[in-house]
Design a protein that fits this description.
The protein has 2 domains: about 180 residues, no CATH class; about 90 residues. The strands form 2 sheets. It has a 5-stranded antiparallel β-sheet with strand order 4-5-7-6-8. The chain is of the alpha+beta class. It contains 12 helices and 8 strands.
């Protein structure tokens, strides 16, 4: 039977599941591994059905990963760069994406869209899937960095807008991107490993004072929030909010996404925050 290896939820949703909801276990066990063509995948999303990678034992957890043949990138900056129109004009997307659609959080005032890629071959190693997603995130610096773990799910979006591109992303292109990402995109991460995590929020606050929230790109802005969350959990929310200077509700939205889906690979830590701060003159006191 032809089609792409994608797992589709049996639950059609018209809103996100709230943190701590009793429905989470039922939802998490409700995905069905399918071979599905691109047009039917698009229809499932339009009808509100979430999707994820193939997994076993009817339980969406990393250790149950079987394979992945789709990767989604979320663009939720809430401005013109996150519109279907802008994204579909991108050369890489127009050549390799299956489709672009507005997400469940999209509004006319704050556009949010998702690009879905389907691969010509499935990826059977979870670490390689994470690398594939990470390389695409590296290529598109403004995409949501939470979209990288091997059993990440993407909500459907009832009645969403679509740009149906109907292209396939060859695994060979992904392998090439991974190589470039490992050679170039990880350099800053390797350099940041020498920083020692601080003992207090005061030290982080001192570093944050040197980072202008509107003087860095959106990807770095999200990394700062993720780094604070990685170090302090919910205790760091006030620190993040006081620094970020985001649009109304934006910090809260990002923060909640870290709880359920974000930064599970541990790729962004407080060392990332220090690495960004150092560009603006920050130095640890014992440097």
């Amino acid at each position: 039977m032809p089609g792409y290896k994608i797992s589709v939820s049996k639950y059609s949703l018209d809103k996100k599941i709230s943190t701590g909801s009793e429905f989470w276990p039922q939802f998490n066990s409700g995905f069905e591994n399918k071979l599905i063509e691109t047009d039917m995948l698009a229809q499932s999303i339009y009808d509100g059905y979430p999707i994820t990678t193939w997994h076993k034992d009817h339980w969406r957890i990393g250790s149950n990963y079987i394979c992945g043949q789709s990767i989604g990138l979320d663009f939720d900056s809430g401005d013109a760069s996150s519109t279907i129109q802008a994204l579909s004009k991108d050369k890489f997307i127009s050549k390799y994406a299956a489709f672009v659609h507005t997400t469940i959080s999209h509004t006319e005032e704050a556009p949010r869209s998702r690009v879905i890629f389907v691969l010509d071959e499935a990826i059977y190693q979870p670490n390689n899937y994470v690398l594939a997603a990470s390389s695409l995130l590296w290529l598109f610096g403004t995409a949501d960095r939470a979209c990288r773990d091997a059993v990440r799910f993407w909500y459907g979006s009832k009645g969403c807008e679509f740009e149906y591109i109907n292209q396939v992303l060859p695994l060979e292109i992904v392998k090439h991107l991974i190589k470039e990402y490992q050679e170039t995109g990880l350099k800053e991460k390797r350099q940041s490993s020498k920083y020692i995590a601080p003992a207090s929020q005061q030290e982080v606050s001192a570093a944050l004072k040197l980072i202008p929230p509107w003087g860095i790109n959106y990807d770095e802005w999200v990394q700062v929030l993720m780094g604070i969350h990685s170090q302090f959990g919910d205790d760091g929310y006030q620190l993040a909010e006081s620094w970020a200077d985001g649009k109304k509700g934006e910090i809260d939205h990002k923060w909640k996404s870290f709880h359920n889906n974000g930064n599970v690979t541990g790729a962004v830590t407080i060392a990332t925050v220090f690495g960004i701060a150092k560009k603006f003159g920050w130095r640890k006191t014992d440097d």
